[in-house]
Amino acid sequence: MNTFETGPIRPPSEAGSYLIRLTRGCPWNKCKFCRSYRKRSFEIRDIAEVEADIDAMARIRDEIKSGGPVHDQYGWMVKNALSSGGTTAFLQDGDSLAMKPDAVRHILGHFKERFPEVTRITSYARSRTMSTRSVDDLVSYRELGLTRIHIGMESGHDPLLEIVKKGVTADGHIRGGKRVVEAGIELSEYIMPGLGGREFTEGHAVDSARVLNEIGPDFIRFRTICLGSKLPLWEEFSSGKLTRLTDIEIVKEIRTFIEALDVDGVKIASDHILNLLGELDGRLPEDKDRLLGIIDTFLSLPKYDRELFQVARRAGMLEKLSDLDHPRIRTKAKEILEEIYRHYGKDGVDEAMQEMMERFI
Q1: Among 176, 261, 266, 272, who pairs with 127 as Cys (CB 3.0-4.6 Å)?
Q2: pTM of the model
Q3: Secondary structure of residue 155 in the 3-state scheme
Q4: Mean per-residue pLDDT for 187-203?
Q5: d(CA 104, CA 91)
Q6: Which of residues 38 and 105 earns the better pLDDT score?
């Protein structure tokens, strides 16, 4: 049968990739800000199962390339990958490299044999898992085609890491990240602005930058926290232990973070709809002043224009500050903002923004 198994999530940068599921769920699964795998136990799949999935994908690819029709969801996934070039793949789920090294090598070798045209293979991994893998193991993965590892660092501030139950310390992040870098595999680290509320905003920003300065990753990506009653972390905020940051305060936190960064060649990316300023995209050190300038431009806007931008962004109408100058976008944003004023009051914009953000998750 031409069927295969896929997991629930992947990075936005892997939207056009073949999805290969090595594991099910997350081996830690206790982070208070995440509910992606809450309803399932962690499992490592059998090598034979994964190989069968790879073979099924290869057969579907060959059929589509020969002009055959697309019949189902499996065909559409492969067709999507082919439409994006057919040269990238992503290993799922939340910590696919928790699989034993020999098994990972076996699967990568099989995939390389069936998909020689693929030039980029990436995977999620936990810092803790990477710190338990030898550099030689990671080098062997790179030689078999694994080119990038995505790690959800979230924060480098130890008191906050404990509160959110990340299961790793700042030193653990450094050990795991540096091991990936030493192996010559591209490293993409994720930071979660707003995670620690007002109580931890300074430590979160400064310590996260410090940890990343030590690691020296290739990419740093923002994933702004989106709070809701379904998240275990909500208890910390609803009880008053933590105080939720406003959009403006989160932008200021990001400014502190970027200002403290000192990583040559790192690419900063704000490639997620939850991030207010989607245009924070550039490379350090050459783009640092430009990135800080974007933030300062936003913060210097009149309050009404800042709120117009917030509304338009959360409604998916724009990405760049300059987009607000477009008459149609500005007019529509004004209509939505006036409706928010009527419903929430003029001091209720942040409450409305949180409700709009929750729709994305």
Answers
A1: 176
A2: 0.94
A3: coil
A4: 98
A5: 10
A6: 105
Judge whether residue 358 has pLDDT over 90: no
Q: Which two tokens stand for residue 278?
A: 């989607």
Q: Are 194 and 224 in contact (CB under 8 A)?
A: yes
Question: What is the tens place of the pLDDT at every residue in 145-164?
Answer: 999 999 999 999 999 999 99
Cis-peptide into 285, omega within 30 deg: yes
Buried b (16+ CB within 10 A) or exposed e, 292-312: eebbeebeeeeeeebbbbbbb
Contact 144, 185 (CB under 8 A): no
Q: How many whole angstroms separate alpha carbon 315 and alpha carbon 317?
A: 6
Contact 221, 187 (CB under 8 A): no
DSSP per-residue codes, 81-101 = HHHTTS-EEEEESTTGGGS-H
Nearest-angstrom CA–CA distance, 218 and 259: 18
CA 342/CA 39 separation, integer angstroms: 39
Q: How, if at all, do strands 219-222 and 267-269 pair?
A: parallel
What local confidence, expressed as pLDDT, does residue 360 receive? Answer: 66
Residue 240 tokens read as 């008053």
- Mapping DSSP to helix (H, G, I), strand (E, B) and coil, where does residue 266 land? coil
DSSP H helical ranges for the chain: 47-65, 73-83, 101-114, 127-131, 135-143, 158-163, 170-182, 197-215, 234-238, 247-260, 288-299, 303-314, 327-344, 349-358
Could you tell me the CA-to-CA distances from 301 to 296, 324, 330, 332 in Å, in that order?
9, 12, 14, 19
Residue that the structure tokens 């997620």 belong to: 272
| Tokens linked to 295 | 């933030």
Question: Which residue is listed with tokens 């082919």?
Answer: 82
